[in-house]
Amino acid sequence: IEEELYASKARYLVSYLEWEEKPLVDLGAIFQVNHSLFFANLNVTTALPLNCGNMYDSDYDSTKQYLYSINQNKAGLNIQGDFFTGIKALTVDDFTLSPVIGLSLYYKNFTASNGYSWNGMKDKTGLDENVPWDSTQAVFVPQGKLSDVEITMKNLTAWLGFSFEYKFLENFYCSFGAFVSPYAYTWFLDDHKDNFVEAHGKSHAHQTMTETENFFTDFLLEFKATWNFLPNQVLSLCVKYYVDNNDKSVTWKNGYIND
User: What's the CA gap between 55 and 146, in Å, rounded?
Assistant: First the structure.
């Protein structure tokens, strides 16, 4: 996950966070109904709450990167559900064309902790201005002395499209789907905590919340190969390619709005 925050007026990058998701172990279930006239698929997955790489945090002013930190990333509650249904409108020999509608939902949560950093911020160094994070004047903050950062994401995406299915053999068939999203909504919360509020004497915690609404900017391509090796038993291989062209959002930081 790549998280970017820009200054509202000057439009320069002020914060860039990279949240790794490796390895992220998912458990799930698939429910399918396949009738001669229609089909419906429900896919539900959840990720195990395990460590999943690092979170890298970079902060900038208008001319330089003055902070760089490396933190351990752990998955929290992560749930995703996809529901697609379609009508088998046209069948010619072993080829079937179906108009499809769908809905995707997800909730994701990660926490970065136990980090260390190189900080060139003037409030940290005591200098008159910020210095680059890799400068000899920057201050090294050892592991365990940084506060936690938590992100939470919620998304709802509606889909419209078509599915093309071809049966190669009696028990083996492939399908290709192409979909566009008429509407998608995403809610994102970045929560910088203060683990050392008692030492500071006051809280340095802050939150940034972002909302986005997309109209016909998201696209999904899906290829699936299915082998029906036993009655009511199938083995499927699915590859999905998702494109999100939205680049605008509305952001609230501790109650103040930025675009």
Answer: 13
